[in-house]
Request: fold
Amino acid sequence: MRMLLIHSDYLEYEVKDKALKNPEPISEEQKKGRLDEVLAVFMSVEKADETNPDEIVEKAVVEIKDVASQVKADRIFVYPFAHLSSELAKPDVALKVLQKIEERLREEGFEVKRAPFGYYKAFRLSCKGHPLAELSRTIVPSGETVS
Ligand SMILES: C[C@@H](O)[C@H](N)C(=O)N[C@H]1[C@@H](O)[C@H](n2cnc3c(N)ncnc32)O[C@@H]1CO
Reply:
């Protein structure tokens, strides 16, 4: 999994068109979303993650919690983003991983939103620009190597 973490004044998105034949079903309310004072986490779930999705979920939560505590963010925006890797996991695996990460972060006490999966989306982001405001992380299942 590849993650780009941006500590932001806000992130807002608007769903435009389907980017998959069968995108995640969403309500009218989910077509737009915004969080202020948020750690935005753009995530590409990768092929290698399919060998152990549960482990990837836990490793991602550890990394996100670590960055959130460093930048003192208690809101997280989980953002599916297929542009951080050329070895993407299948959509059904990727969606499950992202849903689980959302659930686990809530269990850890964060306020969490997740942008809809399988769509083209317009988004606006205001990066805070401090030294830790832009970070990336790569996570692989044990036994795999980072390519
Ligand atoms: C397109 C761009 O504007 C938008 N931001 C977008 O990326 N949409 C992606 C993700 O929501 C999701 N998606 C599919 N596979 C994956 C994957 N392996 N990991 C993460 N997301 C995925 O499906 C869409 C098309 O790839």
Remarks:
- Residues 65 and 105 are 8 Å apart (CA to CA).
- The helical segments are 53-71, 91-107.
- Residues 19-20, 43-45, 80-83, 88-89, 91, 94, 117-121 surround 3'-deoxy-3'-(L-threonylamino)adenosine (CB under 6 Å).
